[in-house]
Amino acid sequence: MESSKSRSTDPVPSAIDDCLDRHVASGQSIVVGLSGGIDSVVLLAALREPASRRSLQLACLHVHHGLTPNADHWEAHCRDLCAAWSVPLDVKHVEVERGSSDGLEAAARRARHAAFVQTGADWVALAHHRDDQAETLLFNLLRGTGLAGAAAMAEARGRLLRPLLDVGRADIEAYAAAHGLRWIEDESNADTRFSRNHLRHEVLAGLDARFPGSAANLAAAARRFGEARGLLDELAVVDLAARAADFPLDVELLRTLSEPRARNLLRYLLQRRHIGIPGEDRLRELLRQLTHAAPDRHPAAVFGRWRIFRRGGKVAVEAIQDEV
Predict the structure, then answer these.
(1) Distance CA 30, CA 47 (A)
(2) 3-state helix, strand, coil in the chain (%, to 5)
(3) Listing from the earlier edge strand, what are the strands of the sheet with 160-161?
């Protein structure tokens, strides 16, 4: 997309214009994930500004989780807002897994993203901002993440776009006040029993009081971690030496690489298959078994719904079928 001739000095539209220039072609379609909260309302409002629109096909998607008695009120607010702004709106009702092993927050996030990927738009724009990025980095680090988790959220990944990722919460609030915007306050955001809310209200607030600008510094660190992850992905491609970036993979290739490079290659291929890695220790042990087990052995490991195994000098993966 060509850069607009005039740039706003407001951080919100300026960041959005820069993001669109980097990723979006003129005339492409963008669906905004509209919750009705301040972040997504500001994102939608800024995308409607003349400099940002530039022939974009703009629409909204509201995901109705049904997790709160106010869910219908949120939907009604989104419908009223989109009607007032003449923006098409689609509402998806989803079922959230209440007994998920990784908690209700993560289950709701998965349900939202499943709805997002079903859209036919070129891009799905989400309203995550710089403070969310810092929160995600801390959350992932405390869970023992690797470099991919430390990279937190990408500005663009697949069809997901996060135009506000370099914008602070204070700038978003200032934009909303300056434009007289109305939004819904999610009452669950104040509940510190949820891990992310605890990080936001207790940990990050304390850090910012002691170390002003900490959220911006953490978000910048996440960006650098993302660059490092990209370099490691490029190294994995080099190590494949023109082989297809997929399974089955020659065990002998893994044996010729240093242990960190072999582990990096294995991680890269698993990520391309969207196979979650439970932990670095398990990945290291899987690599050891794949490369050192006797020829008559068939080492295998289960990562989520996938089985990774060695057979005939190859590392292969297969989906685990549900029991009937």
Answers:
(1) 9
(2) 50, 15, 35
(3) 89-93, 57-64, 29-33, 123-125, 160-161, 156-157
* Strand pairing category for 314-319 and 306-311: antiparallel
> 122: which 2 tokens?
């070129």
**Helices marked H in 193-247:** 195-198, 205-210, 214-240
List residues bridging with 311 in a β-sheet: 314
Single-letter amino acid, residue 18: D
- Structural element, H or E, at residue 287: helix 280-292
For residue 285, the model assigns a pLDDT of 92
Q: Quick one: tokens of 176? A: 């909303």
Question: Looking at this protein, which amino acid is placed at residue 122?
Answer: D
Contacts of 323 (CB under 8 A, 6+ apart): none
255-265 tens-digit pLDDT: 999 999 999 99
Q: Burial of 128 by CB count in 10 Å (0-12 exposed, 13-18 middle, 19+ buried)? A: buried
**Averaged pLDDT for residues 41-68:** 85
The answer to whether the beta carbons of residues 266 and 284 sit under 8 Å apart is no
The backbone torsions φ and ψ at residue 246, rounded to the nearest 5 degrees and listed phi first, read -165, 170
Taking only the tens place, the pLDDT of each residue in 231-277 is 999 999 999 998 999 999 999 999 999 999 999 999 999 989 888 87
CA distances, 322 to each of 2, 101, 261, 319 (Å): 49, 18, 34, 9
Closest C-alpha to 53, from 23, 29, 79, 22: 29
- Structural tokens at position 278: 């439970």
217 vs 8, more confident: 217
Cβ contacts of 172 within 8 Å, gap of 6 or more: 12, 38, 39, 42, 129, 164
Percent of the chain with pLDDT over 70: 90
Tell me the CA end-to-end span of the chain in Å, nearest whole number.
50
Amino acid symbol at 39: D
